[in-house]
From TrEMBL:
Entry GO terms, CC: peroxisome
BP GO annotations: fatty acid beta-oxidation using acyl-CoA oxidase; lipid homeostasis
Needed cofactors: FAD
Highest taxon, organism lineage: Eukaryota
Residues that hold FAD according to the record: T113, G152
Listed InterPro entries: ACOX_C_alpha1, Acyl-CoA_ox_N, Acyl-CoA_Oxase/DH_mid-dom_sf, Acyl-CoA_oxidase, Acyl-CoA_oxidase_C, AcylCo_DH-like_C, AcylCoA_DH/ox_N_sf, AcylCoA_DH/oxidase_NM_dom_sf
Active site: E395
Pfam families: ACOX, ACOX_C_alpha1, Acyl-CoA_ox_N
Protein name: Acyl-coenzyme A oxidase
Amino acid sequence: MDEQKVLSIKGLLDDTPEEYLSHKEKYENSIRKSVLFYKTLHSTEDENMSVDEKTKLNFRNIVTSAIFKDNSPFMLHNSMFIPTIMGQGTDEQREYWMKRAKNMEIIGTYAQTELGHGTFIRGLETQATYDPDTEEFVLHSPVLSSYKWWPGGLAHTANYCIVMARLYIKGKSHGIHPFMVQIRDEETHMPLPGIKLGEIGAKLGFNTVNNGFLGFENHRISRDRMLMKNAQVLKDGTFVAGSNSKLTYGTMVYVRVLIVSNMANMLAKAVTIALRYSAIRRQSQPKPDEPEPQILDYVTQQHKLFIAIASSHAFYMNAMWLWEIYYSVSLQLASGKLDNLPELHALACCLKPLSTIDATAMIEKCRLACGGHGYMLSANLAQTYGLATAAYTYEGENTVLLLQAARSLVKAWVGHVKGRPLKGTMAYLAGDSTVKAWDGSIDGIIQSFKVVAIRKISSVVKILQDYEKSGLSPEDAWNKASVFLTAASEAHGRAVLLSVYKSEMDKRAAVLSPPLRKVLLQLVDLYVTYWALEKVGDMLLYASITDKDVDELQRRYIELLAAIRPNAVGLVDAFDFRDEILNSTLGAYDGRAYERLMEEAMKSPLNAEPVNQTFHKYLKPFMRGKL
Ligand SMILES: CCCCC/C=C\C/C=C\C/C=C\C/C=C\C/C=C\C=C\C(=O)SCCNC(=O)CCNC(=O)[C@H](O)C(C)(C)COP(=O)(O)OP(=O)(O)OC[C@H]1O[C@@H](n2cnc3c(N)ncnc32)[C@H](O)[C@@H]1OP(=O)(O)O
Ligand SMILES: Cc1cc2nc3c(=O)[nH]c(=O)nc-3n(C[C@H](O)[C@H](O)[C@H](O)COP(=O)(O)OP(=O)(O)OC[C@H]3O[C@@H](n4cnc5c(N)ncnc54)[C@H](O)[C@@H]3O)c2cc1C
């Protein structure tokens, strides 16, 4: 569905800027808009959709969720509740729940994180105890730290949720499993008996997502509410384990893949705003006899912004590539073939952190590049930052995910040294890790990033082995080496991001017009050169770059900025965000930033009257010494 249709929805857009609404009004306004939006959207993702159609649907959801400037309380319904039913439900359960969820007859969320545990899923404390006499599960939050805490939409919006709880049968724990739980009455929306619900309070961002808490007091649900695709509990209480306990983590892998495309979109939005503003903003007078130049003509401004365009392209290409891997692994899992799951998990554990780290930093740089006006909420850069930086934490905190990827890299390297073949995205680890002479071509630099990854992985494995030889336990050795384990994962992630961006662009280059091909390949060149300069220490250490080579790289980088400058505005226009989606006084297509800043300023409630009532109540007596 195109944005035009979304934006034509009457009443969807705000007349009162969200900034001037109370915490409660923001939520209520967001519900109003979400309902309007969903009436039009009626997304109908189904299993028969092609990868491309599924991806477009997720992109549409991501783009349209942008119209909320923050995000929608329905966000988890689409991004986790439905995918969990799809991925963890039996055919019957999917049949029943997908119809209700797709038609928005019910609104759901995904409740996994607790007050006391987010990262460590195996430490979750919410209990689901099976009662064979009544064929029910008894859900219970034994202590405060076991309260579910964070789930989006949980506080006042959702009436159902997926609860990830520890399954007990006859006193024995069988690990964490997903349960479909009704939490509110479908007519009155009152919390059901034995269920405590509420909102967790104001946050840095996501303030319309209605993140909530949930506590259970011996709340009973029927046996058929455990999603039993991967593991089952029979009527008599017999537990049937799944083929792999990590299959219950499947929704998180899906969202990590979605986040890479979400970062492409968020970064594209921010750089569209900052770059358009940089094209209309004139400041300073380097040449006395000439007018003030566009700030976009300062090379330092180009350095801040052009990498964001290239990075959005890189994340998009990697997201499409990763999505296809996810989709094919999902089909394999459906037929019981699990051997590609570890690689998918490791890839997601690299690309989700790197895309969120880079996007967050570059969105902040876009704000900083706009001076004081970038600091205005009406510019919509701070809110975009607030949304992006949350992704550093949610869906697997970045450090933890990079350490997960390191597990796979260490295992692959140790296997390689013992003669086991490497496969897929780790096959390059078997390559030659000695660089005789620096090769400054795009492919040469990408190869150098692979060498850096090989060298960092092999050296951290050596550190681990030395620690264990010295008598440290594997766990203590792992913790001691963990800073360099995350560095090795980052190096692998960089090598993947760069090589996939280049190879995916090469695939597409053939069908592009020569002028377009030239510009897009300049962005690839900029991206590779930028990161070679950012990681020049690694290049010096592992890739035989000399100071002369660095000098050449710097000159090439400056020339690339100049080459891209004439097309810079066209490149962000090509992201094709409508003004209503950008929602920014600085980024509007017509460039009337000053008029829009003033228009937005006049919407401040304080500008409704020339003298605020506090003058007579406080200021005047204070200034007269009479307070
Ligand atoms: C109106 C318009 C609105 C429309 C909106 C529509 C869409 C939204 C649009 C945009 C937004 C896009 C995305 C955002 C969506 C949602 C975000 C908002 C909410 C956020 C939700 C959440 O955060 S949900 C909670 C997320 N929590 C986590 O991710 C927890 C992280 N922790 C873990 O994953 C695990 O604890 C662990 C992996 C760190 C450790 O697990 P554990 O069981 O302890 O394993 P071990 O460490 O003992 O062993 C690891 C071995 O297990 C393998 N493994 C681990 N995980 C997986 C996996 N997922 N898959 C496969 N294998 C796995 C691992 O490989 C190890 O194997 P080896 O032993 O062989 O090494
Ligand atoms: C905006 C937002 C929306 C969210 N929405 C949802 C939702 O809808 N549903 C849901 O279930 N959850 C949701 N979450 C929760 C999110 O999944 C957790 O915050 C996340 O998993 C991190 O867990 P935590 O907050 O307990 O931090 P912790 O796991 O306590 O981590 C805190 C710090 O400890 C470090 N640390 C932890 N473990 C290790 C380790 N093994 N090795 C090294 N360092 C470690 C981390 O790196 C981090 O620096 C949301 C969070 C945010 C911010």
